[in-house]
Specification:
With about 110 residues, the protein is mainly α. The protein has two domains: about 1-45, no CATH class; about 50-113, no CATH class. It is about 50% helix and about 0% strand. The chain has six helices and no strands. The radius of gyration is 20 Å and the shape is elongated. The protein starts with a helix and ends in a 14-residue tail after the last helix. Pfam families: Pkinase. GO terms for molecular function: ATP binding; protein serine/threonine kinase activity. Keywords: ATP-binding, Nucleotide-binding, Signal. InterPro entries: CK2_alpha (IPR045216), Kinase-like_dom_sf (IPR011009), Prot_kinase_dom (IPR000719).
Amino acid sequence: PVFALILQLVRIAKVLGTDELFGYLHKYHIELDTRFKDLLGQQTRKRWEQFIQSENQHLVSPEALDLLDKLLRYDHQQRLTAAEAMQHPYFYPVVKEHANTNTDGTKAISSSN
């Protein structure tokens, strides 16, 4: 189980980078075992656009990348809460659609039609 946690941290660091990780550890006075430092090495933060491929390109929008960036942070103080995430522009189409739906799931009829 401990090795799995270490491996998970290494995988996260390969995406989010080690500079932010070490900054987070320093900010909150957290000491990382030297064995972890050796395993982590020096990783640069990846841009979210690097993960866009032809298979997933149709799912990507600037709002999706912005939401992802604000959720995937080491620092819990910088990371969006669930409530904040639900207010993100990425979800505006869902909120708008929900606002135009009756409680029984049927489409609401606008008086302007």
